[in-house]
Write a structure and sequence with these properties.
The complex is a heterodimer of chains A (about 230) and B (about 220). By secondary structure, chain A is α/β, with parallel strands linked by helices. Helices cover about 30% and strands about 25% of the residues of chain A. Chain A folds into two domains: about 1-80 and about 160-170 and about 180-234, P-loop containing nucleotide triphosphate hydrolases (Rossmann fold); about 95-155, no CATH class. In chain A, the strands form two sheets. A six-stranded mixed sheet of chain A has the order 5-6-7-3-8-9, with helices on both faces. In chain A, α3 (about 95-105) crosses α4. Chain B has one domain. Classes of the chains: A alpha/beta (about 230), B mainly alpha (about 220).
């Protein structure tokens, strides 16, 4: 597989309809390397649909998404540079944490998938539980394994849907450090979250979505909660 | 990359199945029950009408196969792992072929118990020409599973998938079932006619080639969106 890379993701006038329902409407933004961009908004605002389109599993009804010079039709080559943490965790409960990570590492073409899986679990603080089935894990532990699964291939673009769900304070702090490290390494991180307190101070740019539309954009955002109240609650 | 991805998916499916034993037990239990019910109603005074054994065998494969297909993809739906498979850079046809290989393996294991059972209960001379029987059964199973895997993957997010799968699958696989039944009947005849068996086997192989090619071609577009 040819190795490709890109420095930015641009979303241009993208809309997505499901029948007569408009999930995303004429959204435009750009995210560059070393940036954490937050999608903020209430349930049904279109955040997950937007992430699915960025992940190439959903086609926009209109508009275009570009990854540097590539478009979603680049297929496998592009998918090898994208990591996705979904609302569902994409893990097999019958397999152990190590088997889950090694399976996906193998599918991403990583040569020593088992070694990579062990290293990822050590990083997640789950080294001692690596041979336990995921079914025996708490929601927070599963979330940590799922995050490692999404990042196992060092993606350029990390798409994270509610990454803080189910995490305790220590795990949340570890995730925040991990996201900052991703930013330092030059990854593009796009995350959807409801947790404005955690997003505060983490995001380089915030997009407020309501009914599928961007209603506010903030660069170097501060005072997210008051902005959220004024633009979403109105 | 393609072969590695197929192998990883098959190995993963087998590991999950060895741990849960859910599919093997349900498919096998259902298949044996089906054969026993048919045997009680169709075997009179220790004898069944000619060709009944072949019909029962293929009807059971069809029903048990439908059950296995539904459950295999239900497993991938529960944690949205099918979506995760769509996100990896492995060629998407590899995902189809990996799932297909897993289902064929499971059905072949079921058939390894089913065929002797049908031969015994219906006094059908199925095992006299083992090479031809294995060829017909595997070719038929492959054709049935090739169509079924595509439809089961397509329907994984449909609310009424359990109803829709057999509604779509059975009419399209009628040629497989007919060729399977006729081929198996020809094998069980007292006077074995290799030409007749070869004809039905070739028909099954042709069906396999056409439907696997079509499925490989359509899997990526139907799984995007």
């Amino acid at each position: 597989m040819t190795s490709v890379d890109f420095d930015e993701v641009s979303v241009e006038d993208v809309s997505r309809h499901f029948g007569r329902r408009r999930a995303v409407s004429r959204v435009t933004f750009r995210a560059t390397r070393g940036m954490i961009l937050g999608l903020l908004g209430p349930n049904g605002a279109g955040k997950s649909t937007l992430l699915a389109m960025l992940a190439t599993v959903l086609r926009p009804s209109s508009g275009a998404i570009r990854y540097g010079t590539l478009n979603p039709s680049a297929g496998s080559v592009l998918r090898s540079r994208i990591g996705v943490l979904g609302h569902d965790l994409f893990l097999y409960p019958e397999l152990t944490a190590r088997e889950n990570l090694a399976f996906f590492a193998g599918l991403y073409g990583i040569a020593h998938s088992d070694t990579r899986a062990r290293a990822a679990l050590e990083r997640a603080g789950l080294g001692t539980r690596s041979d336990d089935p995921v079914a025996s894990f708490s929601r927070g532990m599963r979330q940590r394994v799922a995050l490692e699964r999404a990042l196992i291939h060092d993606p350029r673009l990390a798409l994270l849907d509610e990454p803080f769900t189910g995490l305790d304070d220590a795990s949340t702090a570890a995730l925040l450090d991990r996201l900052k490290a991703l930013r330092e390494s030059g990854a593009i991180v796009i995350l959807a979250t409801h947790d404005l307190d955690l997003a505060e101070g983490l995001l380089d740019q915030a997009l407020f979505l309501r009914d599928g539309r961007i209603v506010e954009t903030m660069s170097a955002p501060g005072a997210l909660r008051s902005t959220y109240r004024s633009v979403i609650g109105r | 990359m393609m072969l590695r991805a197929i192998w990883l998916i098959v190995r993963k499916d087998l590991t999950v199945e060895v741990r849960s034993r859910e599919l093997a037990y349900t498919t096998l239990f259902f298949a044996i029950s089906c054969v026993l019910v048919f045997a009680f109603s169709l075997v009179q005074e220790g004898r069944a009408a000619e060709g009944v054994g072949a019909g029962v065998l293929w009807m059971t494969i069809m029903f048990a196969g439908n059950l296995a297909l539904g459950r295999t993809f239900e497993r991938e739906r529960q944690s949205e792992t099918l979506r995760a498979l769509m996100l990896v850079p492995a060629p998407r046809p590899a995902v189809y072929l990996g799932k297909l290989a897993g289902i064929v393996l499971l059905l072949v294991l079921t058939e390894a118990i089913l065929v002797p059972l049908v031969a015994l209960l219906f006094q059908a001379e199925l095992l006299a020409h083992l090479f031809w029987l294995v060829s017909v059964v595997i070719a038929g199973t492959l054709g049935f599973a090739a169509v079924g895997t595509l439809f089961a993957a397509m329907l994984v997010r449909a609310r009424s998938r359990d109803v829709l799968l057999p509604v779509l699958l059975y009419p399209i696989t009628v040629p497989v079932i007919i060729a399977g039944v006729r081929g198996t009947m020809a094998i069980a005849q007292p006077e074995f006619e290799a030409d007749v068996v070869r004809f039905w086997l070739l028909l099954l192989v042709a069906f396999d080639v056409v439907f696997i090619t079509l499925a490989l071609w359509t899997f990526e577009p139907v799984m995007t969106d």
